Amino acid sequence: MEGRVTRISGAVVEAVGIDSPNMNDIVRVGNAGLLGEIVRLQDDKSIIQVYEDTTGLRVNEKVSNTHTQLSVKLAPGLLGSIFDGIQRPLEKIMEQSGDFIAKGVDIAPLDMEKRWEFTPIAKAGDTVHEGQIIGEVAETSLIIHKVMVPVGVHGKLDSIEKGEFTINQNIAIISGDEEKIEVKMLQEWPVRKFRPVKEKLSPDIPLITGQRVLDTFFPVAKGGTAAIPGPFGAGKTVTQHSLAEWSDADIIVYVGCGERGNEMTEMLTTLPKLKDARTGKPLMDRTILIANTSNMPVAAREASIYTGAALAEYYRDMGYNVALMADSTSRWAEAMRELSGRLEEMPGEEGYPAYLSSKIAEFYERAGRVRTLNDSVGSLTLIGAVSPAGGDVSEPVSQSTIRVTRVFWALDASLANARHFPSINWLNSYSLYEDDLTSWYTENVSKEWPALKKELMVVLTREAEINEIVQLVGYDALPEADKLILDIAKIVREDFLQQNAFDEVDAFSSIKKQYYMLSAIKMLYSVEKQAVDNQVPMSTFSGIKSKELLAKMKFVPDDKLETFNSEFKTSIEEVKNSVVVNV
Ligand SMILES: Nc1ncnc2c1ncn2[C@@H]1O[C@H](COP(=O)(O)OP(=O)(O)OP(=O)(O)O)[C@@H](O)[C@H]1O
Ligand SMILES: [Mg+2]
Questions:
Q1: What is the pLDDT of residues 66-76, one digit of tens each?
Q2: Where are the alpha helices (DSSP H) in 27-158?
Q3: Other residues' Cβ atoms within 10 Å of the Cβ of residue 435
Q4: Which of 44, 117, 290, 506 is deepest in the core (most CB within 10 A)?
Q5: Domains along the chain?
Q6: How confident is the model at residue 583 (pLDDT cuts 50, 70, 90)?
Q7: Would you state the pLDDT for residue 97?
């Protein structure tokens, strides 16, 4: 039975007479066969969210039910791909239909002809269960793709083949409880459904980002959640790019929901050119890009977050550490708002649907460090940029995000204007993973780590208080002990927190280097403190060699650190001998 379009309102279409309609059924709308999803059933009507441009669609055109759900295709070939919000391969679509995506085009997201060398791990006769890894494919120069028994399938492996196969050919046959199941590398998964895992594990390993302000003061765990709220131009995108390039995740899924078309163009031109820092191979060998621009249909933007999450979970299930960056989730929320308006739902705060916060919460719930169905350990870290108008985080999208994410990296326009980058405000930001991660840092970096970073954070908070006093009484009237705090705080800000994403060495700081830098600052702090306690004026310390060295330290590559550090220690000894001892 075919349905008929009865009403069209932008991306939302009403139809009657669809064959046994169910919530979330995927339908083909109109003569062009536009992809749509049933989002509400009301009396005899089906309300459909259409993922393609509905211009030209007319009432009475046909609607047919595919009886499938909005799904992603999972197989080797995902890495290095650039998809739109519903996993259509952007480059191929553009080749076929130019800049504007032709309607109803049905292009497979993955190459169906390409042959992959499949190496079985399981053997005929084995009993296998859902999620079990039965073979491997070298997907890119960096990543081995693990082929898993589809979720919901178990039984005895009748046969399994070694050799070259396309993703759509049978590689194994499993005798299930009732029937024989042909297994291919290609599998499907409905995007709105969480992929199952055995258990969630505690988030006690940091995602090392190489960004000093993040790793030292506001760390995110592997499998954790972080929000980057910030006004226009504050550095959200540069931060997300740095994380994609430098963090120690195995796989990156980057979902760009751009406001402006050129922002997406920038992402599509910069990310594919980046090299993987650790191996020198192309970053795209471990990356999937999902791009939405504002001229793409709003429903595809709504779906893009789920498409990204499903692809990310799939690689997590192979035992990889996956990080998903969404830039910006505000654009995603606006897509929800627009669709909700078209659906004539009761609007909540600022016109967003009442379910905005539950949708945002549901998305971040997909994060976690987990034991997978095949007993490997994988993680999915979710990092979402939020762009509140005017940077005011009291609006609904920021609030709903902050409520559920455990790390808050507050980008600050005044810091950005002062060219302090990354412009993450150290007084407003926080990480609720600090306690979970303490043992990792003490075991892998140094026992002194927690005390060291705490002490320097205290200096930064004290600085803010003292600055208020300075405004009233002036710098000269300050007690020497306060001048000391200002002196050290300036060093922490300029020589440690500020980090240039575009400098070859400074773009990434290893944890070891971060530790050396913190210890060096602490050494100077101790000497100055001792001096001040002995009535030596702070002015004695202006222009000393140790400070010059501290300013250079961020540009010292790891293999020169030891030498540099001993030079620094010598300079500190000199200060001690000349100033502190001789009082
Ligand atoms: N870590 C950094 N190092 C050096 N420069 C930076 C850094 N972060 C941001 N910038 C500078 O700030 C500019 C704006 O940053 P970015 O595009 O990331 O802002 P945004 O918050 O994503 O803005 P929008 O709201 O327009 O999306 C960059 O083009 C760059 O010049
Ligand atoms: Mg941006």
A1: 999 999 999 99
A2: 90-97
A3: 10
A4: 290
A5: 3-69 (2.40.30.20), 74-94+197-432 (3.40.50.300), 111-185 (2.40.50.100), 445-580 (1.10.1140.10)
A6: very low
A7: 64
User: To test ligand 1's pocket by mutation, which of 213, 228, 232, 238 has the most ligand atoms within 8 angstroms of CB?
Assistant: 238
Between the CA of 352 and the centroid of ligand 1 the distance, in Å, is 28
Residue 106 pLDDT exceeds 80: no
Prediction pTM value: 0.94
Q: Which residues line ligand 1 (CB under 6 A)?
A: 230, 232-238, 387, 421-422, 500-502
Task: Please give the pLDDT value at position 267.
Answer: 76
What is the CA(82)–ligand 1 centre distance, in A? Answer: 23
Pocket test for ligand 1, best of 209, 211, 237 (most atoms within 8 A of CB): 237
Q: How far is the CA of 485 from the centre of ligand 1 (A)?
A: 30
As a whole-number percent, the residues of the chain with pLDDT over 70 amount to 96
Mean pLDDT value of segment 480-487: 97
**What is the spatial distance between Cα 352 and Cα 418, in angstroms, rounded to a whole number?**
34
Residues 6+ apart with CB under 8 A from 188: 71, 72, 73, 74
* pLDDT tens by residue, 488-531: 999 999 999 999 988 999 999 999 999 999 999 999 999 999 99
Could you tell me the two tokens for 475? Answer: 């710098």
User: Where are the alpha helices (H) located in 318-448, listed in sequence order?
Assistant: 329-342, 356-365, 396-404, 413-417, 434-444
Q: Are strands 170-175 and 155-160 parallel, antiparallel or unpaired?
A: antiparallel
Residues 556 and 265: their CA atoms lie apart, in Å, by 34
Instruction: Give the Å distance between the CA of 366 and the centre of ligand 1.
Output: 28
Closest CA to 564 of 575, 551, 576, 582: 551
